Inverse folding.
């Protein structure tokens, strides 16, 4: 099995797919970025464990990956459910080497006019899912002295949301603080903790129900003048899990077409 945090693991590059022999958990696996990431993780050689909220949206993604993928619907913000999921993944696929906390929801709303439950819902989906995932896998990773975690931040978490979405920006800012703090705690155990920070990506959750003009105007915020593609985020996840990044730690990797310079 490849130890994805071993300093000399990069020597495996070129001789086998980057994640060969590793077990990787992915949350939000039924989503626009998640489903693409699931495919790319499997193509990179990982044994993948997929989770999302609803079995019916998760099933087609799992089916594409065949019998090697383990899939189960859970609420990833629920710490007990996440712990149980990790136990079942380890029975089925072996110790967890990597975790990608991709689950999240995008909602907008003026701060003063938010419905009573909107704040909690958005923070739960975007921040508590990452907290639950990290708490569920870290004890085992610490015991083994190896592992890599990729959290999902956002441009909004770095400099505030452009659309009114304080709850989302605060949750993603929290993910960045969580990532850096856990990097300090877990680094001495040779566990890497990083985040990707996507710019606008053309998934249904961002562009569903919008016109071509509205999409073009969001894409124009990037220096390439276009929306990003889910593959461009999935590739960053594979990089951060892989032996190509064994000295990348506590980092927030912007994948945003130069939106924030
Ligand atoms: N699309 C973008 O432009 C963009 C930009 C910045 C950051 N992001 C982040 O990237 C990630 C994926 O975004 P996407 O565009 O693919 O969104 P998406 O809505 O298509 O996918 C997110 C998935 O997370 C799942 N999810 C939400 N709450 C969950 C919970 N409690 N338990 C389990 N699963 C849960 C949803 O069911 C969904 O399938 C999110 O964290 C999002 O905030 C996206």
């Amino acid at each position: 099995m490849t130890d994805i945090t071993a300093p000399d693991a990069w020597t495996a590059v070129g001789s086998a797919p980057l994640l060969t022999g590793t077990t990787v958990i992915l949350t939000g696996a039924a989503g626009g970025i998640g489903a693409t990431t699931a495919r790319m993780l499997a193509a990179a050689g990982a044994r993948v464990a997929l989770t999302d909220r609803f079995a019916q949206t998760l099933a087609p993604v799992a089916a594409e990956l065949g019998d090697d993928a383990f899939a189960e619907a859970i609420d990833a913000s629920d710490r007990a459910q996440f712990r149980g999921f990790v136990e079942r993944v380890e029975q089925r696929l072996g110790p967890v080497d990597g975790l990608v906390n991709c689950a999240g929801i995008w909602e907008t709303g003026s701060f003063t006019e938010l419905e009573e439950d909107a704040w909690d819902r958005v923070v739960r989906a975007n921040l508590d899912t990452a907290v639950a995932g990290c708490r569920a896998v870290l004890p085992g990773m610490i015991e083994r002295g190896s592992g890599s975690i990729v959290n999902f931040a956002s441009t909004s978490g770095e400099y505030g949301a452009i659309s009114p979405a304080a709850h989302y920006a605060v949750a993603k800012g929290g993910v960045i603080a969580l990532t850096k703090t856990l990097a300090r705690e877990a680094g001495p155990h040779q566990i890497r903790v990083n985040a990707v920070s996507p710019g606008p990506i053309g998934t249904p959750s961002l562009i569903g129900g919008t016109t071509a003009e509205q999409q073009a105007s969001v894409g124009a915020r990037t220096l390439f003048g276009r929306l990003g593609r889910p593959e461009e985020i999935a590739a960053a996840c594979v990089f951060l899990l892989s032996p190509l990044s064994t000295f990348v730690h506590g980092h927030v990797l912007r994948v945003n077409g130069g939106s924030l310079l």
